[in-house]
Design brief:
CATH superfamily of the largest domain: NAD(P)-binding Rossmann-like Domain
Helix content: 25-40%
Number of helices: 7
Strand order of the largest sheet: 2-1-3-4-5-11
Shape: elongated
Largest sheet: 6 strands, parallel
Structural class: alpha/beta
Strand content: 15-25%
Distance between the termini: 26 Å
CATH class of the largest domain: Alpha Beta
Oligomer: single chain
Radius of gyration: 19 Å
């Protein structure tokens, strides 16, 4: 594949390394910071002759970048978070253009195994009210958002499987938590790449399901695999990363 990398920070460099190891060609690196990439602004011209773009950048640039993808007719993998307020606009642009856009909060294959296991476990305690369930996540001190997008995805998978939990509470609590609330707690410190834990707790015992990211490599590999899947299968439309992950993991 011929690929443009949008966002050439630590994740972008990891993606480039994996792309090259898998025999792909990085055509252009785009980054807003001066002197970091090959160009600072993504335009349709930058995307000429490219098979796919992989973007892990800043949310404020997503709207313009999506316009460039749609105008150039180039599909993309979008790992940037924080642009959910324009999701409707993005979906409309993508579906009208005929390109494919795979987007999500976490492209790690291991994380998607974690999501599936958590959802299955939550469904198992649907009628066993002795068990409560909650989410805890840990990240390095430089992370700018809380809770993480992955923690919110985890929480939403629990809500989908467990009807007695109807809302997420991720803020400060100065009262007893209500039974229908799913508590999501965040810790920031050190250099932890990412730990997400779900506990199913009762008076008798505790079951913990945990995903620990050791490096950005897992996220980068998943993004590259998603790009390969997008191009190979000629996928079009506004695609949740869950669809890609389910296809990748089926039968395993």
């Amino acid at each position: 594949m011929k690929v443009v990398i949008v966002g050439y920070g630590r994740m972008g460099r990891e993606i480039e390394s994996i792309l090259k190891a898998r025999g792909h060609t990085v055509v252009t690196r785009v980054d807003r910071a001066p002197g970091v990439g090959d160009v600072q602004v993504l335009t349709p011209e930058v995307l000429a002759g490219v098979d796919v773009a992989i973007e892990f950048s800043l949310p404020e640039g997503v709207a313009e970048n999506i316009k460039s993808y749609t105008q150039a007719g180039v599909s993309a993998v979008l790992g940037t978070t924080g642009w959910e307020n324009i999701a409707g606009e993005v979906k409309t642009l993508v579906e009208k253009s005929g390109i494919g856009l795979v987007h999500g909060t976490n492209f790690s294959v291991g994380a998607h195994m974690f999501f599936a296991l958590v959802e299955q476990a939550a469904a198992m305690i649907k009628d066993i009210t002795a068990y409560d369930i909650f989410v805890t996540e840990y990240h390095h001190k430089l992370k700018k958002d809380s809770p993480s997008g992955t923690a919110l995805t985890t929480a939403n998978r629990i809500l989908r499987a467990l009807p007695r939990k109807t809302e997420i509470n991720s803020g400060r609590i100065d009262r007893q938590i209500r039974d229908e609330e799913l508590h999501v707690a965040s810790v920031r410190g050190g250099s932890i790449p990412g730990i997400h834990s779900v506990m199913l707790d009762s008076d008798a015992d505790t079951l913990e399901i945990r995903h620990t990211a050791r490096s950005r490599g897992g996220f980068a590999l998943g993004a590259v695999l998603a790009a390969e899947w997008l191009v190979k299968n000629k996928k079009t439309g506004y695609i949740e990363v869950e669809e890609f992950a389910q296809d990748l993991l089926k039968g395993r």
